[in-house]
Amino acid sequence: MATLKVPSNVPALADDCDNLRKAFQGWGTNEALIISILGHRDAAQRRAIRKHYADTYGEELLRSITDEISGDFERAVILWTLDPAERDAVLANETAKKWHPGNPVLVEIACSRGSAQLFAVRQAYHDRFKRSLEEDVAAHVTGDFRKLLVPLVSSYRYEGPEVNTRLAHSEAKILHEKIEHKAYGDDEIIRILTTRSKAQLLATLNNYNDTFGHPITKDLKADPKDEFLKTLRAVIRCFTCPDRYFEKVARLAIAGNGTDENSLTRVITTRAEVDLKLIKEAYQKRNSVPLEKAVADDTSGDYETMLLALLGKE
């Protein structure tokens, strides 16, 4: 499901670091060489490159990158080079500090990562920012959003396949009753969405559909302009169909008069080693255009080349 292409014969670690050093030195930066290395190494290999580079040259690789390149290309390379948990921690910190109701990043991190991955994000956040993720979310987010997002980023869900069908039926009824009375921020809705395992939540949502004749997301569109309802829908879509959720984020990032580079970069860098192939398939099916072509038509230069490398271009 990943799109990342790693060569069958990966050069020696010392060679990768030496070539990156050469790319940074001289009169001009060799952007193509940076992409050819970092754009074709998996998380473990990038982690090893960062350590060896720092040990060899006495400088953090990310600092060298920042000193030599800039703009959207720099952000894509930096986010990609970070360890996945560290990357999520950085994205979560940016979002918490500048939080606004329409920003879905915290939901994406909390709901499309596994429990162990989310725990690693919280550890990385603590190590990097000397505060807890929960602390910063609670400090910057308000109202019903805080009630929802703090337990979402704090959760450690059971990940087994067991499902309690009776519980699924009763909690589907609870969800319907609360939504019918427009009590969208009710503690029961938040409890169900933030504590149940993915298997249990899927059973509840399927039961909702079977019992009431339509998916819960339809009832959560009562007011399309309500950002909290939009956030609840994002929670459900990230759990039930992450590929289609991220396809929509990429589509909206590309559509219109201007490109939302931050959203496009986020989707590609966070999903290239996960399910970007499925996202590409969903994009092709929804838009009748390959995602690679859409990205190439809407971006340019080294930024375009980096994104296309992560999308699987040889």
From TrEMBL:
Domain notes: A pair of annexin repeats may form one binding site for calcium and phospholipid.
Listed GO MF terms: calcium ion binding; calcium-dependent phospholipid binding
Protein's name according to its UniProt entry: Annexin
SMART domains: ANX
Gene3D superfamilies: Annexin
Keyword Heme on entry: no
Binding residues annotated for Ca(2+) 1, in chain numbering: 24, 26, 28, 68, 254, 258, 296, 299, 304
PROSITE patterns, alphabetized: ANNEXIN_1, ANNEXIN_2
KW Ligase (keyword) present: no
Keyword entries, A-Z: Annexin, Calcium, Calcium/phospholipid-binding, Metal-binding, Repeat
Organism: Hordeum vulgare subsp. vulgare
GO process terms (BP): response to stress
Family: Belongs to the annexin family.
Annotated positions binding Ca(2+) 3: 298
InterPro entries from the UniProt entry: Annexin, Annexin_repeat, Annexin_repeat_CS, Annexin_sf, AnnexinD_plant
